[in-house]
Write a structure and sequence with these properties.
By secondary structure, the chain is an all-alpha fold. 75% of the residues lie in helices and 0% in strands.
């Protein structure tokens, strides 16, 4: 079996990062958003990979962009700083989730 990570592995890694970061997040609205997005992403892992076609590189880039989210959130002094840190990640993932939920599969 190949040891190469696939897009679904990266999605599951993002979900684990979100849950881990939420556990220690001092800002309730950000913590709730992390958990909600993780709950939404988890069942869609296979579809996220399927829809992006080049899902592995897309998900790899998202994981790299996130870096150490937990440590970054711990360093945020207030809610505005935490939201500023997370908003680009949330926006990107929410677009992808919306795209996957509304996708139409063509059978050719």
């Amino acid at each position: 079996m190949s040891q190469q990570k696939m897009g679904t592995h990266y999605v599951r890694e993002v979900v684990a990062m979100f849950r881990d970061a939420a556990a220690d997040c001092p800002v309730p609205p950000v913590r709730e958003k992390l958990v909600a997005l993780a709950d939404e992403l988890e069942p869609l892992a296979a579809k996220l990979y399927f829809k992006t076609q080049k899902g592995t590189s897309d998900m790899e880039k998202i994981v790299a962009d996130m870096g150490d989210l937990k440590a970054a959130l711990a360093g945020c002094a207030d809610e505005a700083a935490a939201m500023a840190l997370c908003e680009p990640i949330f926006t990107k993932l929410e677009k992808i989730v919306h795209h996957v939920k509304t996708m139409k599969v063509r059978m050719t």
